[in-house]
Structures are given as structure tokens and as C-alpha cells.
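Researcher: Sequence recovery benchmark, item below. Answer with residues only.
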């Protein structure tokens, strides 16, 4: 049998190292949430909104005792063929650009957004996200806003500018190549989340 002081020392090391985590809290991403991808060409601008998000993803809140922040992690999945650009031709081209037929799912994974425990109603938060389009994943630092209404609902909003080419995608030229779509697009998200 091990001496009691060895057991106490081992417990102390575990506590100091933060190996004990508080129980997880879960947030359901509701169907009120919105994701929009916008871009431009040498002629005009376009906005493509995901119109059929079903709200079935979950974010997880984890923390270690004594820390002033908790971490928000989780995966959001969006169907690539459910974007509507408010113009049938642009919508079809946009879905083809995303290679929606071969890669129907776009993934946005939050990797540890740090949120203060005693945050005000609105707080700027930072962390990292991993975006997967057409089977290619890229990690980005991200800044967004966490709004806690004081009820069981909260809101996570932000945007990130990305280049389609880093995902192996090329914007489709329009009208015999005369209209050129820019490689850079902006991803805007507005997630309405509910504590479960």
C-alpha cells in the first residue's frame, strides 16, 4: 500500500496542472442561426445565404477550476447545396464552385473560443476555427462577439475573410470569361445558441 503522502502529492499535482475539468455545459445551435458567404466580381457583388439550416449542432463549454475563462468548442455543419444567392444562375455557379456535388458538407469547427466567466452582456472573444470546404481544412485565428441575454439563449457573431484558392477551388468565369469573380470571400456567421 502506498504511503498516504504520495497519494496526496499526486492529487495536488493533478489539481495544479488543471487535469480536473468542470462538467460540460452544452449549447444547441438553433435553426434561427445564419451563415452567409459574400464576394464580388469586376461587375458587381453577391451574397449567398444558407437558407435551410436545421439547427442540430452542439457547442460544448469546458473549463478548469481557477481559470477566469471557459472554452467554447464544437462543430457546425452546413449543406453546400443549400446556399441561395438570390439569383438562379449565380446560385448554380456558386454551388459548382464549392463542388457541392462531390463535397456536400461545409464544416466550421470552433477550437477553443475563450469567454470570461464574469462577462458583461456583450464580450469580444478570440480563438481559433477550422473551416473545411470541398474536403480541404484550414485553420484561422478568429475574433467574434458573444452576447449573453441573461436567459438560456446567447448569440455568437463574427466574420472571417478567406481565399477560395486555399481550398483548391477556383471561381467560375462568367460570360465567355468576361466577368471575373474575386478569389476572396467573406464568411459571416450569426449563431443563436440555447443552453441544454
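Model:
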Amino acid at each position: 500500500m502506498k504511503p498516504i503522502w504520495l497519494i496526496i502529492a499526486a492529487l495536488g499535482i493533478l489539481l495544479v496542472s488543471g487535469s480536473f475539468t468542470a462538467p460540460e455545459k452544452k449549447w444547441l445551435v438553433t435553426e434561427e442561426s445564419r451563415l452567409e458567404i459574400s464576394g464580388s466580381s469586376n461587375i458587381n457583388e453577391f451574397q449567398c445565404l444558407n437558407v435551410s439550416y436545421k439547427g442540430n449542432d452542439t457547442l460544448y463549454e469546458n473549463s478548469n477550476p481557477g481559470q477566469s475563462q471557459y472554452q467554447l468548442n464544437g462543430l457546425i455543419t452546413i449543406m453546400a447545396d443549400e446556399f441561395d444567392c438570390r439569383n438562379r444562375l449565380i446560385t448554380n455557379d456558386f454551388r459548382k464552385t464549392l463542388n457541392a456535388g462531390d463535397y456536400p458538407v461545409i464544416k466550421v469547427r470552433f477550437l477553443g473560443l475563450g469567454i470570461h466567466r464574469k462577462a458583461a452582456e456583450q464580450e469580444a472573444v478570440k480563438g481559433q476555427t477550422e473551416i473545411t470546404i470541398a474536403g480541404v481544412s484550414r485553420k484561422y485565428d478568429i475574433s467574434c462577439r458573444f452576447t449573453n441575454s441573461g436567459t438560456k439563449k446567447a448569440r455568437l457573431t463574427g466574420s472571417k475573410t478567406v481565399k477560395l484558392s486555399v481550398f483548391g477551388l477556383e471561381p467560375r468565369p462568367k460570360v465567355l470569361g468576361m466577368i471575373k469573380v474575386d478569389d476572396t470571400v467573406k464568411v459571416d456567421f450569426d449563431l443563436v445558441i440555447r443552453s441544454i
